[in-house]
Prior knowledge:
The protein has 489 residues and is α/β, with parallel strands linked by helices. The protein has helices spanning 6-12, 39-43, 45-53, 70-75, 109-117, 146-153, 161-174, 191-206, 208-217, 234-244, 285-308, 314-318, 321-335, 347-358, 367-371, 374-381, 383-391, 397-415, 425-434, 439-447, 455-458, 461-474, 478-485, and strands at 30-35, 60-65, 82-86, 92-96, 99-104, 123-126, 181-184, 223-226, 252-254, 259-263, 279-281.
Amino acid sequence: xxxxSNQALASLNGKLPIPAYRLAEHKPEIGIVHLGPGAxxxxxxxxxxxxxxxxxxxxxxxxxxxxxxxxxQALTPQDGLYTLAVLDAVQSYQVIGAVQEVLIASEQYxxxxxxxxxxxxxxxxxxxxxxxxxxxxxxxxxxxHAQIQQDLTxxxxxxxxxxxxxxxxxxxxxxxxxxxxxxxxxNLTDNGHKLRSALIAYAEQKDPxxxxxxxxxxxxxxxxxxxxxxxxxxxxxxxxxxVLGVADNWPIKREAFVQxxxxxxxxxDRPAWQQAGVIYAQDVSAFEKAxxxxxxxxxxxxxxxxxxxxxxxxxxxxxxxxxxxxxxxMISSEIMPSFTPPAELDVQQYSQDILARFNxxxxxxxxxxxxxxxxxxxxMRVLPAIRDNLAAGKPVDKLAFAIAAWCRFIVKRYKDNxxxxxxxxxxxxxxxxxxxxxxxxxxxxxxxVDAVFTAELSLNxxxxxxxxxxxxxxxxxxxxxxAVFAGEA
Length: 489
Ligand code: CS2
């Protein structure tokens, strides 16, 4: 079977949507560099840009991974092409051509820097996950972070995304080229502000003149990104090969729902993203908050509680009536009251639609994947709601159950001698090693991990007692504990 490539495209015409511009004489030039070419980027931003490219413009993407050669190895032989499979009530397939090249920063540094420095590169979008920003508990650049230290003090090529972007921006400054606009597409509250302040904080250490230039000129909108995009598996590869009649090294699958809200501060010269469905809004933080609390917080809760119960996927966990009842109660009694949603959002409907999306049988989304990086995700999705409720004297018991389930999940990994995927795996497993099963002491050990829990939160007795009670209950077994917390027992 032939492989997907520019050459194979013509044979697919008429079978499914293809990037017809790839067959034209004048192909779009690169105008966007993207850091972090994972599944989410390829199912989300690259798809939006693909739709936008149908309206013309030089907005092809150079996709850059910091270190991993995987995506480059899979897509370079395919001219950057890959298939997007939308798996929902209706299934559809589309070949995406927006990614024109895939580079590896650690191996092709001069090329990456040249792309980032070129005046024709107007945007840098990024999906580098929470940990990629190297922020401390207050959301500022962590200047003590080992890799940030390495980049700040050494003269080697940068190893962090922040260091790489700074080097490119400094080169643009020297060459009198305006900064590119940076667009964070990660699930962080106020992602654009955090990214902007991290870059300026880094620049202050390196060169105050550039820091000053950036504070005047760097555009870094906040965004809200949403689409459930599980990791690719062999089943989807086989399915795509059957539909296309050509082999694809790395197709992407996602649900039909897709949303991208961008703060309305982009330069006028931009891809036709709006025609592709992007929503520009004055205030994105309210949307971001609603999404983090109503989608990502329940997702992480399902991941930890569901894993303890022995489920494998989100869909499997959603078939457990007690678990879904618990999630619904957590949403209505603790999450909804924790924040003020955007005026234009019908939160009840929004939340119901999210739970319906979790119930999509066509999407095999592994709980294990969502459980990754809990130390980075919980402070964005669950702890803010807890903090807000504590301040307002509102309940936190169900949210605390999610935190206790995370602690139990780590202890279980330790006991089962299984790998914990988390940048803080080492200190967290060290905590698990000290756990004796006594709720008081075990919970105190976890809450003392200051990279996850702020001092204020770990010293809050209401919070401590709530996590302790849930943790203790979980000792009776996850199903029994869940029944109690869902009000069944
Ligand atoms: C998930 C998200 O893996 C996770 O932690 O909660 O990736 C989620 O699927 C997306 O944010 C949906 O937009």
